[in-house]
Amino acid sequence: MLKINDVLVLRNGKDVLDIKNIIFDLSKTYHIYGNTGAGKTTFFELVAGVEKPARGDVSVGDLSLYNSNFVDLSLLRKSFGVMFDVPGLISNQNVYENIKLAVESKKIKFDESLRKVIIESYLKNFEMERIIDERPGVLSTDQKKIAAFIRAIITNPKFLIFDGFTDFLSGPYRDKKIQLLNNMKNKKVGGLFLSKDKQPSGIEFDYYFELKNGSIYEC
Prior knowledge:
By secondary structure, the protein is an alpha/beta fold. 32% of the residues lie in helices and 26% in strands. It has a domain at 90-156.
């Protein structure tokens, strides 16, 4: 279980998020939507371990996302796959090096088959095999998003935290993106999927929530 415990997040002295208590089942999927300024990015950063709250805590099981020791925190983050709204690929490294670095940062060892897995299990599905040796500067926006998505899921996370979800689905290969996400859902990989509005996406979520004025409401 991912638990948000009486959290307050401040920006420039103003309340951005004020969430009392909520629990997310790691095997379920949640679509969280809200208008611009509702607090989506802050909420994403909170549950991704980026934005430390002024009050309260976020925990997974008995482990705090913000108050655990380094070893426990490293183990905790291995179970997450985090997809930022902006791909954030390192510009002087090619796609393979970007993904490999993400794997190594979670202290997960892959042998030389990692490159083959990236190509055969992911890039080939999007007809993007050639980009594996390309740097981000020569990639299209959609290619960057696919590379960043592979980076987020290559370690087989138990739970996805996904910002800019509907933007990711836009563009080429929409059906293939949906199929890949549905395959993960069928394997009981849960997640929080954040977007601007509650548009039909081709994915049947288990629960829907709306972020409004820094608070969250089940729909």
